[in-house]
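User: Hey, quick favor. My workstation is busy. Could you predict this chain's structure for me?
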Amino acid sequence: MTSLLLTDAAATARGQWVVGFSLPRSSNDARLDMYVGMEHRLHVLLERLSNVLREDLRTVATAHDLKLVQLDALQYLVVANRFSDTLTALVAFLGSTKGTASQTVKALERKGLLVRSQDPDDGRVFHLELTEEGRRIAERALPAPALSDIEAPDTHADNIEALLQQMLAARGGARFGVCHTCRHHDRRGDQRWCALLKTELHESEVSKWCTEHEPAE
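Assistant: No problem, here it is.
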């Protein structure tokens, strides 16, 4: 009997096993290789990592009478820049349908956690802005306690981001990314500048996420 136990730092800090299962040893190891191959091992680890985080976020959502997808929307909008706080960007980031995202936004409006404002330069565009209470809830959930309880080197985030970018590129999804790491981000003296959108950036914006992001070379 061959056992395979996979752990991650967040789960270990909580005294949890990520996943464990046993397979009978036979002369044909193809079945075993299916589970220990890199792609399958990575799939199991990422799925379990997601489950650990979702468990924490579900606790926060329940405490504020929110559905998990509603908390997801708040978490995105609290880090989105002014070019990415729209329904279209929210759909792309969550990977949801426009109908689901629209219903989520309406529910958050009714709860007083979000307001919609019309773009002054393009009346077809509406920005989604968090209220003070919406921002407070979102910031409470970032980062999730599962990550707050551990010491993770920056290389963890770098490796996961690189993997995510590869997966999104393969399926044509919007990449998103932090403004100051984009190839369009520029400095002009003391001024920050977006070369793609040809507009000045405020200092507070360069650490936010953008749907137009393209990794710097």
